[in-house]
Amino acid sequence: MTTPRVFLVRHGETEWSLSGKHTGRTDIPLTANGEKRVMATGRALVGNDRLIVPKQLAHIYVSPRKRAQRTFELLNLGIADPLPWKVHGEKLPEVGIDCSARVEVTEDIREWDYGDYEGITSPEIRAIREKQGLTQRWDIWRDGCAFGETPDDVTQRVDRLIKEIRDKWHGPAIGKPKSGELPPADVLIVAHGHILRAFAMRWVGKRLHDGPAFLLEAGGVGTLSYEHHSIDEPAILLGGAFAVTP
């Protein structure tokens, strides 16, 4: 039986992710080490016998930010059509992988808008709030960002994307017998730390106000799916096996 998945890929390391600065609308590049790590991830996890099988991808969503787009380029999925942006770096050599999925840039998966907290760290944000008389320890999942997005704002846009994925890509395939005639149904999302954790929480119906108890490192990969081949039972897949040809 077919159980489609969503792969969540956080962009690679940047100077601001290293220092803990909140990076929303600011467009900064990956570090050299960040690029190397993403390429290593692609070699390890992308392929016909790997976790992410390009020919099984139905659709790909990428953030409008260059750091996410460059991360996608470095995964080297073998996309047939031109990308919907000007390539941000040296093109990698072809590795014999074919992927017919369409790549779409969407604002629904851009990073949380940090407003006044853009470019500063959590300790700095808490110090600012204390001076403003806000003594409760700041928690983005509860408080949001001054002159930026609230948890409800973020919930609205990730819920919209989740609905689209289930309606367009997962609903028609889930629970069907596996066969060569069944179209691809997996989805790949390349974006950012806070928004991808928010997406994962909403995937399983959790409120952002409760806060996630999981992390996604720069350049990291997460997987979402369903229990019992049922679209009504979304789940976070803590560990997935690689595909193996009999």
Please, what is the average pLDDT? 94
Lateral arrangement of strands in the main beta sheet: 3-2-4-1-5-6
- Beta content comes to 5-15%
CA gyration radius, whole angstroms: 18 Å
Structural classification: alpha/beta
Query: Helical percent range?
Result: 25-40%
Number of strands: 6
List low-pLDDT spans. Answer: none
* Biggest sheet character: 6 strands, mixed
Distance between the amino and carboxyl termini: 17 Å
Q: Describe the global form.
A: globular
The topology string of helices and strands comes to EHHEHEHHHEHEE
Number of helices: 7
Describe how the helices and strands are arranged.
Blueprint: E1 6-10, H1 15-19, H2 32-45, E2 57-62, H3 66-75, E3 102-105, H4 122-131, H5 140-143, H6 151-170, E4 186-191, H7 193-203, E5 221-226, E6 234-236
Helix pairs in contact: 2-3, 6-7
Please characterize this protein's 3D structure:
With 246 residues, the protein is of the alpha/beta class. It has seven helices and six strands. Strands 3-2-4-1-5-6 form a six-stranded mixed β-sheet. β2 (57-62), α3 and β3 form a beta-alpha-beta unit. The radius of gyration is 18 Å and the shape is globular. It starts with 5 loop residues before the first strand and ends in a 10-residue tail after the last strand.
Give the structure's gist in a few sentences.
The protein is α/β, with parallel strands linked by helices.
Which descriptors apply to this entry?
alpha/beta, 6-stranded mixed sheet, globular, 246 residues
